[in-house]
Design brief:
Chain lengths: 258, 409
């Protein structure tokens, strides 16, 4: 669309009733949908994770160990590694791109203020957790997280998500996914401690680090090193995994068309 | 990077089930029909009496069923009391959980006040309905007109709260660009009015009230709301193609390559236009008005009005489909993986059974009102309270009977 037509249409929009709705929208966003106070956790710490994609081989060891450590029901995951086959534009060379996904423990987490019973809250060390005894299972937070990091646990019927393995951190252990990572791609630590590995790596690679969906202003605290910017948002990829159903409509497996 | 193929991605379930559609539909019909009943109920406009009678049934029945659907959408429904024990003023849903019960009480109070004189008149009827009327009417004191207006105004105020919170609850969700727009709340309200006026048209037909006035009024409401809905949809679209509003642009982008979404948009657009055109057609037919209006009262109404209930069905369909698309289809747009998620609607209580069940419950509520509430005789707003014999049942009855008859087709 050419520029003149664009601006003409733009004028029309601005003249329309939209302007009247703007105060309402800022109230809805800012006034009511604000972050509640953080509580619990060590205020002297701020946990974060750095995923060095150059080290990730897509083995899914993290997926499996997290699944076992946190007893997630079959088919539901706190972390997964998305895999893409990419082709070089000029050479036509094929490569696989791996992208581990987990909760970003956002600095401005949209999943927290929406919770009607404050079952989801952010600790003062930045970790976002769910009180499963309080959660009513409304799934509002599941819809509000842009990263699909949450799910309703089929067994407990409450919201579930990555906790940075807070129970292990408390005991002085590393999270299951970090512990099991073959290439040492996942680095977790206290970003307030300048001597921690994560702080040093953030300092060293500051300009190369990327986060997922930065335009959502959630300020994710899981940083990716060796990231391709095109994968920070929903990938424009071709989905090829097709479900194969048996005659009774039960799922038997997947099939690849390419 | 010419081509990218997603080899592995987890399957993400939908978080809100069709129950949510049922809740959003019921509660929208509820608040919209309350406003349709308001001219007679609160302002005492006699011309709106037949509409108000029908709208009040629509309002009460949906207000009763909506919270059931809402509870059912919780994965832990028995913990609903947590909403009150741990209310969170930062959450629109929590605000809604406070407004909703107040709204429910105000609607029931209003309906009780509006129906009470007619209930009092029915107390002497033998059998169960007489007993229930005696029990429900709570004595023979008068129903002050002012009280009806005050409760009516309170209900209208609370209904605005419902409109606001149901809209805002979705509009603030940045994670779903198709929801994250200021245009969604007004569109939800507008389509709510479309569905509610459609429902009044259908109730007008199935209850055999067949009031021509109600049909005409509802067609006018449909005309205005369809035009409004069209304007809102166009503005939303313009916002997106101009990329003034990032979320709308992102929303358009997320579905622009999908055939099923294109079909949905086409379907919505065509249905809306067709409805608008049909309503306009009906309203502009010659009314054959003659000199002695009283004689030709029935024939002076366009015969086509007898078919207006069909448009009512289309209007209900629009209101419901809009919510289905907004709540269910939008959840199918993948956020972190390629393409779209595909879910069949499960047969169980979280799917088809839930949808059918809520509609069944709703029908039951309407039938109970039809059985035990003399809504046809209701003089909204206690208007009939005659100065001397405010509690005289007979006078109430004859007056309404006459009015009722004149509005028959
Ligand atoms: S990634 Fe999602 S679940 Fe985790 S803090 Fe951010 S918004 Fe919340
Ligand atoms: S599902 Fe649970 S944690 Fe999430 S918003 Fe609802 S009550 Fe809060
Ligand atoms: S930190 Fe713990 S919960 Fe989070 S992805 Fe790793 S193993 Fe799973």
């Amino acid at each position: 669309m050419d520029a003149i037509r664009r601006s003409l249409l733009g004028q029309m929009v601005r003249l329309s009733a939209g302007a009247a709705l703007i105060p309402f929208s800022s109230l809805a966003q800012a006034g009511i949908n604000q972050q509640p106070a953080r509580h619990e956790g060590d205020p002297t710490k701020r946990y974060g994770m750095l995923v060095d994609l150059r080290q990730c081989i897509g083995c899914q060891a993290c997926t499996v160990s997290c699944h076992i450590e946190n007893a997630a029901p079959l088919g539901q995951f706190r972390t997964t590694v998305s895999q893409y086959e990419v082709q070089h534009q000029e050479s036509g060379e094929l490569a696989t791109f791996m992208l581990p996904r987990l909760c970003n423990h956002c600095e401005n987490p949209p999943c927290v203020p929406v919770c009607p019973v404050e079952a989801t809250y952010q600790q003062r060390d930045g970790i976002v957790v769910v009180d499963s005894d309080r959660c009513v299972g409304c799934a509002y937070c599941v819809n509000a997280c842009p990263y699909d990091a949450r799910f309703i646990n089929q067994r407990t019927q409450t919201a579930d998500k990555c906790t940075f393995c807070a129970h292990r951190l408390e005991a002085g252990l590393l999270p299951a996914c970090v512990e099991s990572c073959v290439g040492g791609a996942r680095v977790i630590g206290d970003m307030r401690d300048p001597q921690s590995q994560i702080s040093r790596m953030i300092h060293e690679h500051r300009d190369a680090l990327m986060v997922l969906q930065p335009e959502k202003h959630t300020l994710p605290q899981v940083f990716y090193l060796g990231m391709d910017e095109r994968f920070t948002t929903r990938p424009t990829a071709e989905p090829v995994a097709l479900e194969v159903l048996d005659p009774h409509g039960q799922e038997m497996g997947y099939e690849f068309h390419h | 990077m010419n081509s990218t193929i997603e080899l592995l991605a987890p399957r993400y379930d939908i978080a809100w089930y069709p129950w949510a559609v049922q809740y959003f539909f019921m509660i929208a019909v509820s608040y919209a029909s309350l406003w349709l009943a308001a001219p007679a109920l609160v302002l005492g406009k006699k011309a709106w009496l037949p509409t108000a009678r029908l709208a009040l049934i629509a309002c009460v029945s949906t207000t009763l069923v909506a919270p059931v659907a809402l509870l059912a959408d919780l994965h832990q429904p028995l913990r609903f009391w947590h909403f009150y024990a741990y209310a969170n003023s930062h959450s629109w849903m929590s605000i809604g959980s406070v407004v909703l019960p107040l709204y429910l009480v105000s609607v029931l109070g209003l309906a009780w006040l509006a129906w009470r004189p007619a209930l009092q008149a029915q107390r002497s009827t033998p059998g169960l309905s007489g007993m229930i009327a005696t029990w429900l009417s709570l004595g023979s004191g008068i129903t002050p007109r002012a009280l009806v207006a005050v409760v009516g105004l309170a209900a209208l105020g609370l209904s605005s709260g419902i409109m606001l919170y149901t809209g805002a609850e979705l509009a603030i969700v940045k994670a779903r660009p198709l929801w994250n727009t200021v245009w969604l709340p007004p569109m939800l309200a507008t389509t709510g009015f479309i569905a509610a006026s459609g429902l009044v048209l259908v109730l007008n037909r199935v209850s055999r009230l067949c009031s021509q006035t109600a049909i005409r009024q509802m067609l006018y409401v449909l005309l205005v709301t369809c035009a409004l809905a069209g304007l809102i949809a166009i503005s939303w679209f313009l916002d997106g193609v101009n990329a003034h509003v990032g979320s709308v642009a992102a929303a358009l982008e997320s579905v622009s390559h999908s055939d099923s979404w294109r079909n949905t948009a086409l379907w919505g657009g065509i249905t809306g236009l067709a409805l608008f055109a049909a309503v306009l057609f009906l309203l502009t037919r010659p009314t054959l008005r003659q000199k002695h209006a009283r004689v030709v009262l029935t024939s002076s109404q366009p015969a086509l009005f007898a078919w207006a209930w069909l448009l009512g069905l289309v209007a209900i369909h629009m209101g419901w489909m809009f919510r289905w698309v907004v709540l269910m289809d939008v959840q199918h747009v993948a956020r972190n993986s390629a393409g779209f998620h595909h879910y069949g609607i499960p047969a169980g209580s979280s799917g088809i059974l839930g949808i059918v069940g809520t509609f069944g419950l709703w029908l039951a509520a309407i039938l109970l009102i039809e059985l035990f509430i003399p809504w046809r005789q209701a003089q909204q707003g206690g208007l009939i309270a005659t100065p001397t014999h405010a509690t005289q049942d007979a006078s109430t009855h004859s007056l309404t009977a006459k009015k009722g008859a004149s509005s028959h087709a």
